[in-house]
Design brief:
21 helices; about 0% strand; mainly alpha
């Protein structure tokens, strides 16, 4: 991530992602407040999950194949070939998305039966209706996915990153304004409109770049053929992921009412740092990774990977520790109001506790997979995904008995950690040594800083016991005070140990601010 331009891109993405995730949390808070952890919420969550699962293969194809192939044509100055490839790829994605949406509408009852076999009677019929309403989402996600890739490659990161803000504002409005009058059906219609922003917000920028997505089509284009070749392992891998998602929901739907919702709300918090910081870094560096890989410039590719791994670890590890310590307080502050009562908070906090242990692993997993994708290697990450899902399914069946829905969360954390280790091993074999030992040295300094931070949190909670009232503002004050001191301790220890990540991030921030 060397250079102010890349950092500026990541900085913009982080800022917009923070706003997007904050609005996303407001959305979840509003949903919890109006409907609680009820059968309506469970039906809505399953209905919104299904189109995303059906789109998963298409989305993965866009992420993994489009930017590297687009980059290769652009680097070679094959502009006519590039434009033909873009137009053809866009139409293929659009056609596949429409086909999947129609399949989803037609076979909604069967899909719901597979996704949530524990749903019967009223909740099943409601889930089928909501699923059919949500299916057009796939078309907007497909068209928007290609558009985001084009804009990112052309150094427009802020427009795609802002989509979530518009999307969540519309969904929040539908929950607050339509929830009481039209129920969960009205909210689902509003959610569909919100998700359509994945394309409509980007369309003006696409027009400004004069990208000919609707002109011409050449199925025989060599890059289209190559993209299809690269996509085949992705389709297999995502089929396995979808089976895994279905098994998770199937198992959860057979537990106590609200288990699906508890896992959903906990996972929202669990992936929040990933969505804000990790995806910002990955989105900013991925076009450069693709360029380095196409140029066979593996020294810069390795440097970029090493810096990204260290930066992600430095940012995510303290957040992971805070989440473990303040899991109940976080869920209380975010969700406990209206129909979301103390019992729902406790159940969700249990899931968050077990999810938290996989927070760093899932973050590192993302940048490792993108490194393979930049080299147009889709086979290795998918094989690792199959391995990860197999571990997850085995652990699901092992832990659900003694730990209930918490066992499903713990299985996810352990499985992702296992997959990340395999990716590290595979990447070293693929591109050779990339400074893993230097990363271990950095990791030891980060871990030491984190241990001091964790020690403060453990003993500090005893020191301030009773100092803050058990009210919303009191708990906010306690979490804020403890976190602030914890981050200060983390930073001071990292500085004393000479952590390169801290010095590097400080230098980038100072250089960026100086340029403003």
């Amino acid at each position: 991530m060397e250079g102010s331009n890349t950092f500026k891109a990541a900085f913009i993405i982080v800022v917009l992602s923070v706003f997007s995730k904050v609005f996303g949390l407001f959305r979840d808070v509003a949903l919890a407040g109006v409907f609680g952890a009820s059968f309506e919420t469970d039906a809505y969550l399953i209905a919104t999950l299904i189109p995303n699962l059906l789109f998963a293969s298409v989305g993965a194809a866009i992420v993994t194949t489009f930017i590297p192939l687009y980059s290769e044509l652009d680097e070679n100055n094959d502009y006519r070939e590039r434009d033909t490839f873009v137009a053809t790829f866009f139409k293929i994605i659009l056609f596949i998305s429409i086909f999947l949406a129609l399949i989803g509408v037609m076979f909604a009852p069967a899909i719901v039966s597979v996704m949530a076999p524990g749903f019967t009677g009223e909740i099943r019929e409601l889930t089928i209706l909501l699923t059919r309403i949500m299916m057009p989402v796939i078309v907007f996600l497909g068209a928007g996915g290609v558009t985001k890739g084009i804009l990112n490659y052309n150094n427009d990161f802020h427009t795609p990153a802002s989509v979530g803000i518009f999307q969540n504002i519309i969904i929040i409005f539908s929950i607050v304004a339509l929830g009481s009058s039209f129920g969960i059906v009205g909210v689902t219609v509003g959610t569909l409109i919100g998700f359509s922003m994945n394309f409509w917000v980007l369309l003006p920028k696409l027009y400004k770049l004069r990208v000919p997505v609707l002109k011409g089509m050449d199925i025989s284009h060599p890059k289209i053929k190559k993209s299809l070749y690269l996509v085949l392992p992705i389709l297999l891998g995502n089929a396995v992921i979808q089976i895994n998602e279905m098994i998770d929901r199937m198992l959860a739907s057979n537990l106590a009412e609200g288990s699906v919702s508890a896992l959903n709300f906990a996972s929202k918090v669990f992936i929040l740092p990933h969505g804000i910081f990790v995806l910002a870094i990955v989105t900013a560096v991925y076009p450069s990774m693709s360029k380095f890989a196409n140029q066979h410039n593996y020294n810069d590719l390795k440097r970029l990977l090493r810096q990204s791994l260290s930066a992600i670890t430095f940012i995510i590890l303290p957040i992971m520790i805070l989440t473990i310590f303040f899991r109940e307080e976080v869920i209380f502050l975010l969700f406990e109001r209206g129909q979301f009562d103390e019992h729902a908070t406790n159940r969700t906090a249990i899931a968050l506790f077990f999810y938290s242990f996989g927070m760093l692993a899932i973050s590192l997993n993302e940048i490792l997979k993108r490194t393979f994708y930049s080299k147009q290697d889709t086979r290795t990450p998918i094989l690792v995904t199959v391995f990860t899902v197999a571990v997850n399914i085995i652990l699901n069946l092992t832990f659900i008995g003694p730990l209930g829905h918490g066992g499903l969360a713990l299985a996810t954390s352990i499985a992702v950690f296992s997959g990340t280790l395999v990716l590290l091993w595979g990447l070293r074999r693929n591109i050779g040594p990339f400074g893993f030992y230097e990363y271990i040295i950095s990791l030891s300094k980060i871990l030491t800083s984190a241990i001091f931070m964790g020690t403060w949190l453990y003993f500090g909670l005893f020191l301030i016991e009773g100092a803050f009232p058990e009210t919303f503002f009191g708990i906010t004050g306690k979490v804020g005070f403890m976190s602030l001191i914890g981050f200060l301790i983390y930073g001071i220890v990292a500085k004393l140990l000479g952590s390169s990540e801290l010095n590097y991030l400080q230098g980038l921030i100072f250089r960026y601010l100086k340029r403003q």
